[in-house]
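A.,

Following up on our hallway conversation. Structure tokens first:
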């Protein structure tokens, strides 16, 4: 059975909105949630990554959550271009602290301080940003830049293994979208130079990462065959090298927005994605596949 839905923020108004939520639970049961907050203040649009947390088992309304802003405030003159956010896709995961408990917090998100309105052409600059907490959310690091991408590239995955943290995103590079990867070995204090783990004339989009045991999985959508298909590959050395790509889908329709997980022992990939095979390419269903890793 299911409980809820229960509000975390709100109520939304024409001058206050929350979007792109992500949630993680530490081993003590505290729930950690991040989202983009957009608001109008004195003729300006302001945006932050907002952090919510609760120790309640089932908070039934906003009063059950505490919150604070953890990113700098991004501010621009009020415009009709609200469909082009400054902050997007914040993701939160937990990691292992030096005390041996899983209550480090890692947050990665995209920030485009000057988004272009009414254009799908990659231009301008998007920054892949990081924030970390080693205190269950009580204190947060300064904002770090993990990478610089093009306007519509969006980081949408982050996974932690002990004091290691990994992030991936797609980036407009040399006339195509490629997938870049970076890692931290010191609980987010510093990060490696981003490396291109997928690249070429095809577009590779929407990476997803998963980790279990000593194995990491990466899935993505790729149009090398003319339409978008879903692929997956693995690393057994924390992303230093990767196996050959395994094709998950083989359909003339579009297969998009994949998410990958690994079974507890890492023997199988569990992949889900949006698929247009039943709709004449106009609408999507959700599909799932399990395959050996």
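Then the amino acids I'd put at each of the 293 positions:
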């Amino acid at each position: 059975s299911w409980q809820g839905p229960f509000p975390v923020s709100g109520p939304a108004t024409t001058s206050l909105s929350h979007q792109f939520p992500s949630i993680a639970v530490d081993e003590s049961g505290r729930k950690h949630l991040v989202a983009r907050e957009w608001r109008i203040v004195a003729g300006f649009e302001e945006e932050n990554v907002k952090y919510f947390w609760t120790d309640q088992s089932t908070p039934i309304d906003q009063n059950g959550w505490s919150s604070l802003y953890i990113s700098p405030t991004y501010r621009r003159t009020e415009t009709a271009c609200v469909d082009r956010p400054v902050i997007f896709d914040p993701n939160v995961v937990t990691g292992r602290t030096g005390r041996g408990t899983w209550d480090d917090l890692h947050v990665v998100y995209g920030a485009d301080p000057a988004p272009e309105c009414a254009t799908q052409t990659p231009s301008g600059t998007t920054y892949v940003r990081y924030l970390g907490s080693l205190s269950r959310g009580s204190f947060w690091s300064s904002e770090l830049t993990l990478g610089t991408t093009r306007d519509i590239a969006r980081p949408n995955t982050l996974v932690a293994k002990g004091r290691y943290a990994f992030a991936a995103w797609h980036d407009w590079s040399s006339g195509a979208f490629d997938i870049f990867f970076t890692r931290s070995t010191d609980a987010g204090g510093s990060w490696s130079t981003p490396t291109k783990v997928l690249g070429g004339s095809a577009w590779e989009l929407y990476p997803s990462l998963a980790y279990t045991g000593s194995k990491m999985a990466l899935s993505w959508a790729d149009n090398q065959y003319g339409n978008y298909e879903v692929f997956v590959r693995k690393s057994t050395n924390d992303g230093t090298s990767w196996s050959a790509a395994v094709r998950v889908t083989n359909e003339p329709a579009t297969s998009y927005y994949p998410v990958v997980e690994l079974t507890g022992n890492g023997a199988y990939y569990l992949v889900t994605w949006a698929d247009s095979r039943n709709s004449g390419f106009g609408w999507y269903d959700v599909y799932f596949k399990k395959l050996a890793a």
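The two ends are 32 Å apart (CA to CA). Curious whether your intuition agrees with the design.

B.
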